[in-house]
Structure formats: C-alpha cells, structure tokens
Here is the input.
Amino acid sequence: MQFPNLLERFLAYVRIDTGSIEESKTFPSTLKQLDLAQKLKQELQDIGLNDATVNVNGYVLATLPSNQTENVPTIALFAHMDTSPDITAENVKPCIQKNHNGKDITLSFKTGLLLKTKDNPELEEKVGQTIITTDGTTLLGADDKAGIAEIMSAMQYLTRHPDCPRPHIRVIFTPDEEVGRGTDRITINEIAADAGYTVDGGPVGEIEDETFCADSMKIQIKGVNVHPGTAKDKMINAIKIASMIVERFPRKHMSPETTENREGYIHPHYLTGTVEEAVIKILIRDFTAQGLEEKEGFIQSIVTEIKDNYPGADIKVELEKSYRNMKTVLDRHPIVVEKAEEAIRLSGLIPVRTRIRGGTDGARLCFMGLPTPNLFTGGHNFHSRYEWISLQDMEKAAEVIVRLMGLWAIK
Here is the structure.
C-alpha cells in the first residue's frame, strides 16, 4: 500500500504547537489545540468525510460510512491532538534523515546532542529507512501526531480505493489526553461505535491491551510562620514537613526510576512550599487495584505518623481516581484484540501483545463501555528531546488500520 501524503501531513501537524497544560482550568487546557482541530476538520472534509466537525469542547468527529450491503459494526479510531507539557512543543523543527545508516544521529551540531544507538538499539534495525527526529530543542510530537497522520492517510486510502471493504468508521481526535482529560467531555453516544482503537502506541507491531491502574494524590500542609528570631515553640515549618514525607518514600523500589515490567510505583512529581504552606503532588501506579490501594495506604500511614509528631500542622490528603487497567474489560471482548493482531500479521509484521506503563484514552473508554486497545504508531522516546520515528513504520501503521477495517467488514 502507498500513502504518499503521510510524511507531509505529519510534518505539518508537528509544527503546530498543541502542548497542553495540567494547571489550566479551561477545556481544552490550551486554545492552540483548536488550531490543529480546525485543520484536521478541513482535511477530513477534503478527503470525503463530509460530516467532519469540531464540537464545542474541541473534539474532532467524523464518519466514513461502510461500503458493505450487509450489516457491519461501527469502529472508532482515536488519536490525541495535544502534546506533553513535559517538554516544549513551541517551534518544533523536525529533522529528516533519509537512507539511515544505522549509526548515531546528531540532533544538534551546536550542542553535540546525539541520538545514540546504544540507548536506541532499534535504530540499527532501520538501515535504509527515513528517520524523523527533533533538533534537540523540543519534543517531536509523534505522540500522538503520528497516530493522527496514520489515521488520516488510512482514511484517504479507503476513500480513494472504494472497493476496499470497510465497516462504518468513526474518526475522533481528542484534546488534553496528556493531562488525563482526553475523554472528560465526550460521551459514548457521541462516539456511536461498537469498538474502538487508539492509535497511540510505540514500536512497530505492538498492540497494547493492558494499562496501569492510576490514581493521583495531593498532600496540602499548612504550618505556622512567625519571625525566626522568636520562633521557638511557635513555628511549624511546612517545607520541613513536606521534605520528611517525601524522604520516607522508597528509593530502591516502588519508584519510576527503579521499576519495570509489572512493577508499580509512587512518584512525587510536584513540590512547592513556604514555611506557611507546602503542596506535594504524587502519581500512584500499579497493574492491579489491590496494589494501588496498598500504595495509597502506605502514603497515608506516613502522613498519619507525621501528623502525630506535628499536631499543630494541618495536613490534608486528597485522592483522585484516574483510570483502571483496561485488560479487565478487553478480556471480555477478545475479538477486538484478535482482529488487530490479524491485521498486523496481514501487513507482514509479527504482532506483539504488550502492556503500557502508563495510560491512554482507551483505558477510560473501556470503562465507559467501549472496548479500546492501543495500536502502535512506530514512535520512540515520547515526551523527550530524543523522540524519533521511522516513516516506513508509520506507513505500516496506516496499512494495519486499512487491513483492520477490512477485517471488521467481513463476517
């Protein structure tokens, strides 16, 4: 299959800054995401999805009707428009290396920043391919603009090849996935599908059917501030209390930097404070609900002990549930994953069923009632200045989408 506009689309999308902001009170969290939304709406209409629209919450929705005479299901394809706030997406300058030689890639000659094969052994497998990287000053945005470009190219292929069988297809591009709100303002009725796929994964051939269970915790500490010269038996230093709480978190286990595979973690990712008030924000992850609850109980026991030692301090803990392991839902709908694996095989690849040490819109969609595993995009090193992707892997992702739609059109 040929997807002649795929690279052009991807490069255009990554040049649009769509970084989301966790602290924002608006939806989407940044209005600049709507710039991409409007562009995608127009492109969808141009390739024949005439009902394409951007709704009041910034979601892009469109339909490609089936070309079958028999009843077929409706399958939704999702990708998210925003990029991670971890690294800036302003003024992205994608760099293209054609006919890759399998060796280290220089991202910046000015700083000497290298994309090293010892850290990215997959690069040695991409000899002769076209590699797209950052220039070392921003992220690239393949997460998830690669997914958007692949869905768009697949839809264009299907409209230009009307004999290719397809079910009813719903295309949905979401805002604010990176800050955990990608499905907050959309309903199952709006999606109007029987099953779905997020195109938001990593290396070629992978399909992810399992995610972390995830919660977040906020600890707010209110101390007492008086002049340090007269502070004896009066001052209660919120900074010191916050430091003691974080100090008791494990270092050699149960932390992101020391865990892998199915191991969960506690991750304090935000800390701010004065003598009078301090705030700690914590991400809690585990592949089981029981493991999640155990970690939350561990944190609560630390806070309780600290409160006993500082009775004059006001320490409050807020717990916010995020998402749960989508495998519990997908195991009840095995055909959704099995068809994806078959589409990957038909594309000449070996399917690799794996888990995400993170989450996708699909995790929440599963528990909203729509079984939604995650398909690969071909991207690597997401949320990083070292982000990269192969054009040929993107083409394979688009091919998998086309073949997957064909499988859903055949009884």
